[in-house]
Amino acid sequence: MTHLLKRFEPAIKIAFVVLIILFLVLYLRDIDYSKFSHIHLNWWLLTIATLISLAFRYWGVFIWRYILKDLGAHDLPPFINLSDVYAKAWMARYIPGTIAWIAGKIHFASKYGISKSRLAVSSLLEGGMQITASLAVSLLILGLDPRLNVISKDIKLVMVLIGLSFIIMLFPPIFNRVVGMMHRIVKRQPAGKELRVNGKAIVRSFILYSIGTLIMGSSYYFLTASLTHVTPDLYFYFVGAFTLSGALGMATPFVPSGLGVRDGAQLVLLSIIFPKEVALVITVFSRLWSVAVDILFYLTAKVFMRSHKVYHK
Fold first, then answer.
1. Which of 51, 147, 209, 276 lies 20 to 30 Å from 194, alpha-carbon distance?
2. Dihedrals φ, ψ of 271, to 5°?
């Protein structure tokens, strides 16, 4: 089986890239660019937003590296190498479903001698914790904001139930049992120690992604400020609104990068504080900007990787 995969590895790589480009083109084609005809960008604020958003993506690499360490991975490659792996896999989020994203991390990182089982568990934990921490922080922020009272109790209840379900699923005994069952179904054998998570990995990743929520939310605050006038008192509302939208998008894995779900949630939450026309422009522009930052993340990771190779030569 391994020999067969190596034989078709070049074709798999080409198919992976082609699928990303295909779905990215389809994704960009659906954006209504006419909404941007009357906007006046503040390029300084947009640059600040972009740099903060780029930092959040590297923060994800930092967290993933810590998760791998907490799960017992030794002799990990340098941060630059893991960033290159993470950036390539990150682009796979535009392929519907989460399998491509996780498979990309496993495939590219396994070449550094990291156990595929440990890579699979760390990727599941990292993705689940990103959603869980974002939901927890954003629901706390928005739950204390009186502006969210316009949203029905049923919708609030659904959001809370989604958050609770992810929190429960990430408890080590439950997480390990679910992963063990999946392993038995696929591999038809009991799961080894490499497929188990521990409390240290759970707690540390939750704290780090809670901090990451504030980093990502800050980028959207400056992005919105680059499009229209905002006041500092809206900062925490933007953190809650945008991170909640992103978490709900990630929680619906069968659409590319949460398309539709994320946008719809953003539009509802932004319409509370902006006229609907302005909220729509921000929502559409933020979607295009997010794609641009993802591409920038991939390119910078590739440049750092190449510079790292040259340096070592």
1. 209
2. -65, -15
12 occurs within a structural domain? no
Residues 69, 248, 88: CA angle, nearest 5 degrees: 45
Number of domains in the chain: 1
Q: Would residue 11 count as lying in a domain? A: no
Helix H or strand E segment including 33: none
What tens digit of pLDDT does each residue of 120-145 get?
888 888 888 888 888 888 888 877 77
DSSP 8-state symbol, 152:
-
First to last CA, the chain: 35
Is the distance from CB of 62 to CB of 76 less than 8 angstroms? no
Q: Is residue 255, in this structure, part of any structural domain at all?
A: yes
Planar angle of CA 118, 123, 124, nearest 5 degrees: 100
Q: Which of 169, 203, 204 is nearest to 66 (CA)?
A: 204
- Quote the domain boundaries for residue 304: 43-312
